[in-house]
Amino acid sequence: MKEDKSSLDKLSGYFKKLGCSIIPNSEELQDDFVYYKMGNYVANRNASPPNDRFFETMPIYVRIGMHLLFYSGKKKSLLRFGRIENLLKKMSEREGEIYNDSTKPEEVQTFIQNFIKTYSIDTEDLEEQDLTKYKTRNEFFYRKLKKDVRPIPEPDNTKLIGSAADCRLMVFDNADDAKKIWIKGRQFSVKELINKKGDETNKLPEGSSIAIYRLAPADYHRYHHPVGAAKVVSQVHSGEEFYTVNPDAVNENFDVFTANTRDISMLEWTPADGKPAIPFAFVSIGALLVGSNVFTNATKGSSYKRGEEMGYFAYGGSTCIAIFPPDAKVKWDDDLLTNSNKGIETLVKVNERIGVSEA
After folding, report:
1. Residue 203 has pLDDT above 50, yes or no
2. From its record, what is one biological process in GO terms (predicted)?
């Protein structure tokens, strides 16, 4: 146990001693970071001009650490040493304990101020604007927003699909396209994603449409129902790994989505009155340094409207994935599909329209 703690301290200290710069300070350097898979560009559909790209904010020690851990696949990266995976799990668990610690209020407030500055958080959007009311780092991390800052477009339109989160989004008409363009893990399939290992209870066709909502640390970390009314049919927990959900790992040979700890919800959606309900899956995926996934409005047997809160993630980047079968006849918005087919994520806000069912 002492040896594990010593190794963990060394690994954490090594990353943090590498520095704390957030963004390479020139476009040329940013291009180099992207080329060497130590960073990525994201398109912003709400920018002027639309889909203008930006370089994603991330501390330099995190960039280098992820590169060492996840570049070139498991056989060549640091993860070829089996004990590293165990250390990642312990780091995630320990970070969760730190983020839930309320015994050092001054440190919590210092963290909050630094976090706001680092990630340019707009505190005017917060439901609770008195920062001293946040007693732990996590309470601020999964902060609530004012109800009017993420409006629900066409709330009575049951065919519309909204973004489940503030996120970097990828959408594909067919999960096979996602495998060709974005997800390189060898074990990735719809069946592997939506089932517990050794179980095939949940069923959706491999030709299903897929939306991948990646949350970065800067994002609002509560996620919402993307369609509605939708009824929760079943839920199951699966996976035990704590790989990062950053493109550094997703674009390499790591089974990020099918190995990571995750909660799988099967739901039914009726986009058109008088027609049969359509089953779909919603998967909440934990990641490196994520303390937990908590459902707040996803009770089995209950129905929810589009835009209602579903749950939240504690500290760390995380991902949600929605999978819709061909019967849903999903048509993703053109700009999102165009970016995704080029391998570019798009920044969107929770509840924002991302597609529609033509069923």
Report:
1. yes
2. phospholipid biosynthetic process
| pLDDT of 352 strictly over 90 | yes
CA atoms of 27 and 31, how far apart (whole Å): 6
Structural tokens at position 339 = 């970016």
The set of residues, in sequence order, having a beta carbon less than 8 Å from that of 180 and lying 6+ positions away, is none
Contacts of 314 (CB under 8 A, 6+ apart): 96, 99, 100, 138, 141, 142, 221, 290, 291, 292, 293, 294
The single residue of 92, 318, 340, 357 carrying the catalytic annotation is: 318
Note the pLDDT tens digit of each residue in 240-266: 765 655 555 555 555 566 767 889 999
Q: What is the pLDDT of residues 146-160, one digit of tens each?
A: 989 999 999 999 999
Record the tokens describing residue 122, joined without a space: 């707009």
Cα 86 from chain centroid (whole Å):
22
Catalytic-residue membership of 224: yes
Residue 67 bears catalytic tag: no
- The model carries a pTM of 0.80
Of the candidates 163, 224, 292, 340, the residue annotated as catalytic is: 224
The owner of tokens 């969107």 is 348
**Catalytic residue among 77, 92, 166, 221, which?**
166
Active site residue 130: no
What's the start-to-end Cα distance of the chain, in Å? 56
